[in-house]
Design goal:
CATH class of the largest domain: Alpha Beta
Bound molecules: hexanoyl-coenzyme A
Largest sheet: 8 strands, mixed
Number of domains: 3
Number of helices: 19
Shape: elongated
Structural class: alpha/beta
Distance between the termini: 61 Å
Strand content: 15-25%
Length: 510
């Protein structure tokens, strides 16, 4: 009997060693943790339960029959984050470069299905070289099976991907279907085809970093939702994110006891908006002063910075925040900011997280670049996302709400539940200068007349009271009382019931 028990220990130890000491040392030398070390850091101490530690690949070509490593390049199982269930898979680069075989794919699919059955998030840690080249179509089939599970799980359980090393070929598309992608700076990159293939096909000379590093995806393409300094920081932040999310769409977002007074006044907000309408201010100051304990988990902080999105809590209730950022491009809506915010709004709506929208927007970005890039369709994404969302929607206009962007930003007309404005709000088709230059074009040569017209227009429209007189704004509120008013509004909306007409699915302008 003792021998049998010892045999189990021996097999376990062998599996835990993955690709062996030499490859583990090489992993560490690159500044990366091993797949197991990552799982240990991600989950509550001692909570990890592993599945399929002894699974091996079934390939025989290219001498593979003699090269079997238990676990086959991916560690899978479940555990807890702050006591709440999550499923996890972590690619082991020390085993065939973390590449995906048929058996490896089956291990991932098993946890994907289990996560769906149990209604718990799934987190994938990626560090892999794509399809297991020795397995051919078996590997391609495995990827497609994983993509299908990702797609079916979308909107049912939160799916999070962390890119912690190379992520090439088939490995990019599973993360792409998930809700959030985070990268580790300088050690991770993701691309469909690597620099060698790029060189052959397009004759471009490009490094891994310039093709798919964090500077590309977290700053330019928007594929990644954030990038962190190292493995430890990335995993710690994923733990923090999970705390804001419900386990599934059958669950409620986790309300926590708050130690921040829900009626807290914030007098400094009375002077946040500068007297000069063209002067910027930082919308993050409003966010952090209003939410519980200034705790704001920003999504995509380095991409499309003219809009700010992320999670926070109001009196313990998780909320999704969407806010124009006057500090960047005056907070204008363009292709990237529309895409970024639309995706976030849809995530919140899918998982029952109320939306709080702060509006200071001069309109949509004009220009050939934007029009040729499809601003009409991309802008419509955000419009569509706010319009279809049935979660509680609270909107506050702090300053500008001009033109179509007024409509888009969770206006009353798109079923905003409670729409507030500060006294500094200006709700109009456009700014006074532009408006006067169009409707009084014949007077342009007369600066005095134009100035009078501008002042007239300002008095008439550059305030919240015209909209309030029509009921499009429910109340004009004092900036210092914003937190108290939003907390009360959220409580008022707790019992909200609203459903959209039956359909197989909608056809969001993709
Ligand atoms: C099998 C692989 C592998 C792969 C790496 N390895 N990629 N084994 N299949 N795809 C093995 C290597 O042989 C090596 O084994 C170990 O992993 C580490 O690889 P290195 O090349 O030494 O590491 P490094 O220099 O860090 O380079 C990492 C890398 C590179 C950039 C990921 O390995 C690479 O380019 N791999 C191939 C990437 C690729 O083209 N994949 C297929 C994409 S097509 P030893 O024994 O020496 O440790 C695809 C189609 C799916 O995925 C499409 C579905 C939609």
């Amino acid at each position: 009997m003792k021998q049998i028990l010892e045999e189990l220990e021996k097999r376990r130890a062998e599996a835990r060693l993955g690709g062996g000491e030499r490859r583990i040392a090489s992993q560490h030398a690159k500044g990366k943790l091993t797949a197991r070390e990552r799982v240990d850091l991600l989950l509550d101490e001692g909570s990890f339960e592993e599945f399929d530690m002894f699974v091996e690949h079934r390939a025989t070509d290219f001498g593979m029959a003699d090269q079997k490593i238990p676990g086959d390049g991916v560690i899978t199982g479940w555990g807890h984050i702050n006591g709440r269930l999550v499923f996890v898979f972590s690619k082991d680069f020390t085993v065939f470069g973390g590449s995906l075989s048929g058996a490896h794919a089956q291990k991932i699919i098993k946890v994907q299905r289990q996560a769906m059955k149990m209604g718990a998030p799934i987190i994938g840690l990626f560090d892999a070289g794509g399809a297991r080249i020795q397995e051919g179509v078996e590997s391609l089939a495995g990827y497609a099976d994983i993509f299908l599970e990702n797609t079916l799980a979308s909107g049912v359980i939160p799916q999070i991907s962390v890119i912690m090393g190379p992520c090439a070929g088939g490995d990019v598309y599973s993360p792409a279907i998930t809700d959030f992608i985070f990268m580790v700076k300088d050690t991770s990159y993701m691309y469909v085809t690597g620099p060698e293939v790029v060189k052959t096909v397009t004759h471009e000379d490009v490094s891994h970093e310039d093709l798919g590093g964090y500077r590309i995806h977290a700053m330019k393409s928007g594929v990644a939702d954030g990038a962190y300094e190292n493995d430890l920081e990335a995993l710690t932040q994923v733990r923090r994110l999970i705390d804001f999310l419900p386990l599934s769409n059958r669950d409620k977002p986790p309300v926590r006891e708050s130690f921040d007074d829900p009626a807290r006044d914030e007098p400094s907000l009375d002077t946040l908006v500068p007297a000069n309408p063209n002067k910027p201010y930082d919308i993050k100051e409003l966010i952090t002063k209003v939410v519980d304990e200034a705790d704001f988990f920003e999504i995509s902080p380095d991409f499309a910075k003219n809009i700010v999105v992320g999670f926070a809590r109001m009196d313990g209730q998780p909320v999704g925040i969407v806010a124009n950022q006057p500090q960047v491009l005056a907070g204008v809506l363009d292709i990237d900011s529309s895409r970024k915010a639309a995706r976030f709004v849809r995530f919140c709506d899918a998982f029952d997280i109320p939306l709080i929208t702060f509006v200071d927007v001069p309109g949509f970005m004009p220009g050939t670049k934007q029009e040729q890039g499809g601003l009409i369709r991309h802008g419509a994404k955000l419009l569509f996302a706010f319009a279809e969302a049935t979660v509680p929607k609270i909107t506050l206009i702090t300053r500008k709400a001009y033109g179509g962007a007024y409509d888009v930003m969770s206006s009353k007309h798109l079923r905003g539940d409670i729409n507030y404005a500060w006294p500094t709000a200006e709700i109009a088709v456009m700014g006074s200068k532009g408006a006067v230059e169009i409707i009084f074009r014949s007077e342009i040569g007369d600066p005095e007349a134009i100035a009078t017209r501008e002042a007239e227009y300002k008095t008439r429209f550059a305030n919240p009271f015209v909209a309030a007189s029509r009921g499009y704004i429910d109340d004009v509120i004092m900036p210092h009382g914003t937190r108290r008013r939003i907390v009360r509004a959220l409580k008022n909306l707790e019992g909200k019931e609203l459903t959209n007409p039956w359909k197989k699915h909608d056809n969001i302008p993709l």
